[in-house]
Design goal:
This protein is of the alpha/beta class and about 525 residues long. Helices cover about 55% and strands about 5% of the residues. The chain contains 17 helices and six strands. Strands 1, 2, 3, 4, 5 and 6 form a six-stranded mixed beta sheet that branches. Helix 15 links the parallel strand 5 and strand 6. About 25% of the residues are buried.
Length: about 525
C-alpha cells in the first residue's frame, strides 16, 4: 500500500477582498491598528505645498507604511511595491479596505518621499510613538494601582474590624510634593553616542577615481557635441582604459607602476578638461546650460577632484581637505573611526540619542567632526521634545571632557561615568564599582542599537545618491526600528492583559458572579 500525505489546504473562500476580516494577530495588522496615524498625517502634510494648487497627495498612512515595509524587509523600491501588491496584510496596514492587484503607487515616488522627509520629521514620528507608549503605560499603571488600592481597602476594612477601628497613616504629603517638584524640571535618562552610516560606494583609490573622471568626461563631451552640433574631438580613451586595466588587474601592484599609471591618467584627464573648455569657448553659454544639471555638477566635481589629485601627486602625500572619494557622490567623505573592522569608513556621521529605548538622530554630517561638541545639541533636542532636562546622562568618555562636565554641573545633571583623573582610594569601594558597572551596562544599549540598526535594518548600506536623500534613508532605518520596538511593547502589554483577564475570569467563575470580563478593564479598546 502506497502512503501519500496531503498537506493542509485553506479554502479559497477565506481569501475575501474585504481586508477588515483579516486575523488581528498579524504584525502588519497590529501596526495598522495601533500606530498614531493622525499625528503622522499632520507631520507628513506639513512638508507638502499643495494646499492651494497641485494634485492631491497620497495618504500619509500609505506612504509611511510603505517606507516601514521597505526598511523592515530590506527591499528595494520596486520590490517593496511588488511585495505590497502580493500581501493583503501589508495593504491593510497601508489603509486599504479591499485587496487590490495593482501597484499602490509608482516606485519612483520613494525618491520624492526621501527628498520631502528629513531626519526631523522621522524624529517627530518617533516622539509620537514614545509618548503614546508612555500614555498607555501610565494608564495601565493607574488601573493596576486602582485595583491594588481597592483590594488594599478591603483588607484595611477587615483589619479595622479586627483591631477596633485602627487605620494606617498616609505618607507625608509635603515630602511627596517636594520630590515631585524636583522631578518636574529634570527627569529621565539620556544616552548619547555617535557612529558612521556607510554609504554604498566603491572603496576609493586614486586610480579608480581618475579613471572614473576620464570616463565621465567622455560622456559629457559626447552629449555636449550632440547638443551644439560640433565635431567630436578624439580623446583616445581606449588607450587610457587599457593602461588602467593592465595595472588594476595585477594581484601585486608595484609602487613604480602605480605612480606611472597615475601620472598617465592625470595627463589624460587634463587633456579632456582642456578639450572641454575649448569646446565651451567656441559656443555660447546656452549650449553649456542645455546639458543636464547632473552633467554640469559632475563636471565641476571632476575639476575639484583633478585639483586634489594633482596636488597630492606633486607633493607626494595622500591626504587633503574635503577629499572627494566618489565622483557620483561628492558629498561622501572619509571618516577615520579606528574600529577593528575598518579604520576608515565612508558615509555620514550621526549623533544619536536614546530615550526610553527609542532612537533619535540629532545630528547628521557628511564631514568628520568631534562628537563631544554634540552635547549641547542633544540637551536642546531633549528639552524641545519632552519639555525638561534629563536627570542622568550616560555617554562615552569622549563626551565627558572638562568643558562638558562643567556644563552638566551647571545644569545639575548627573554624569553616568567615572570622574576625570586618577581615582582616589576613598572611592574604591564596592558600591562605587557597582555603580560604575551599572552605568557601563546601561550605556551599552546605544551600542546595541547601532548594531541592530546596521545589521537588521541595513543602516550601514545607504544606497541613496544625494546627501539629503541619504539622511532620510538613514533616519527611516532607525524609525523602522522604533516602530518595531513600539510593536514589541504593545505585544508585551497585550500579554499582560490576557493574563489579567484569564485570572479574573477564573475568579468570576469561582465566585459565581455573572459580570462581564471586559468591564474589569475599561481601558481596552476592542475591535
Amino acid at each position: 500500500m502506497k502512503f501519500s500525505s496531503q498537506p493542509k489546504t485553506i479554502p479559497l473562500e477565506l481569501f475575501t477582498p474585504d481586508l477588515d476580516q483579516l486575523p488581528k494577530h498579524n504584525r502588519w495588522v497590529q501596526l495598522g491598528d495601533t500606530l498614531p496615524w493622525d499625528k503622522i498625517e499632520l507631520i507628513y502634510n506639513s512638508r507638502l505645498n499643495n494646499v492651494n494648487r497641485g494634485a492631491g497627495n497620497k495618504p500619509a498612512r500609505m506612504i509611511i507604511g510603505a517606507l516601514l515595509i521597505k526598511h523592515k524587509m530590506n527591499l528595494s523600491d520596486r520590490e517593496t511595491i511588488d511585495a505590497i501588491r502580493e500581501n493583503p496584510y501589508m495593504q491593510y496596514m497601508l489603509g486599504l479596505k479591499e485587496f487590490v492587484d495593482v501597484p499602490v503607487f509608482d516606485a519612483s515616488l520613494f525618491v520624492t518621499i526621501r527628498k520631502r522627509l528629513g531626519e526631523d520629521d522621522f524624529n517627530d514620528m518617533s516622539e509620537s510613538l514614545l509618548k503614546l507608549q508612555i500614555e498607555r503605560h501610565e494608564e495601565n499603571q493607574r488601573h493596576k494601582a486602582e485595583k491594588e488600592s481597592s483590594s488594599h481597602n478591603e483588607d484595611n476594612d477587615r483589619d479595622d474590624v479586627n483591631n477596633g477601628g485602627a487605620s494606617v497613616a498616609a505618607p507625608d504629603s509635603d515630602k511627596s510634593s517636594s520630590e515631585t517638584n524636583q522631578t518636574v524640571i529634570r527627569k529621565g535618562i539620556l544616552k548619547i553616542d555617535a557612529t558612521c552610516s556607510d554609504a554604498e560606494v566603491r572603496y576609493p583609490t586614486d586610480l579608480d577615481i581618475l579613471h572614473d573622471g576620464c570616463e565621465v568626461m567622455e560622456r559629457i563631451l559626447d552629449r555636449f557635441c550632440n547638443e551644439s552640433g560640433l565635431q567630436r574631438p578624439s580623446t583616445n580613451f581606449k588607450h587610457v582604459h587599457a593602461v588602467y586595466a593592465k595595472v588594476v588587474k595585477k594581484k601585486n601592484k608595484p609602487l613604480r607602476e602605480l605612480k606611472r599609471c597615475t601620472e598617465h591618467l592625470l595627463s589624460a584627464l587634463s587633456r579632456d578638461i582642456r578639450i572641454a573648455f575649448d569646446l565651451f569657448a567656441r559656443t555660447t553659454t546656452d549650449h553649456f546650460f542645455k546639458l543636464k544639471r547632473h552633467d554640469r555638477e559632475l563636471f565641476s566635481t571632476i575639476l575639484k577632484m583633478y585639483s586634489q589629485q594633482k596636488g597630492m601627486f606633486d607633493s607626494g602625500i595622500h591626504r587633503c581637505d574635503d577629499r572627494i572619494v566618489s565622483i557620483f557622490q561628492p558629498h561622501v567623505r572619509p571618516i577615520v573611526r579606528g574600529k577593528a573592522k575598518a579604520k576608515v569608513e565612508f558615509g555620514s556621521k550621526i549623533g544619536a540619542s536614546i530615550v526610553g529605548g527609542y532612537t533619535f538622530i540629532d545630528h547628521f554630517s557628511w564631514d568628520a567632526y568631534n562628537e563631544s561638541e554634540d552635547l549641547i545639541r542633544h540637551l536642546r533636542a531633549y528639552r524641545k521634545r519632552f519639555g525638561c532636562l534629563p536627570e542622568l546622562l550616560e555617554s562615552d568618555k569622549i563626551y565627558l571632557n572638562r568643558r562638558n562636565r562643567r556644563i552638566l554641573k551647571f545644569l545639575h545633571i548627573e554624569v553616568g561615568g567615572k570622574p576625570l583623573g586618577r581615582p582616589s582610594k576613598s572611592l574604591q569601594t564596592a558600591d562605587y564599582e557597582a555603580r560604575m558597572a551599572k552605568y557601563s551596562g546601561e550605556r551599552n544599549e546605544i551600542e546595541a542599537t547601532f548594531g541592530t540598526g546596521k545589521r537588521v535594518y541595513r543602516a550601514d548600506n545607504i544606497r541613496a545618491k544625494l546627501a539629503d536623500t541619504g539622511n532620510s534613508w538613514c533616519a527611516a532605518c532607525y524609525f523602522a526600528k522604533n516602530v518595531m520596538k513600539f510593536l514589541s511593547g504593545l505585544l508585551h502589554v497585550l500579554t499582560k492583559l490576557a493574563s489579567f483577564i484569564q485570572t479574573w475570569s477564573c475568579k468570576i467563575v469561582e465566585f459565581g458572579k455573572p459580570t462581564d470580563v471586559w468591564e474589569l478593564c475599561p481601558f481596552v479598546v476592542r475591535n
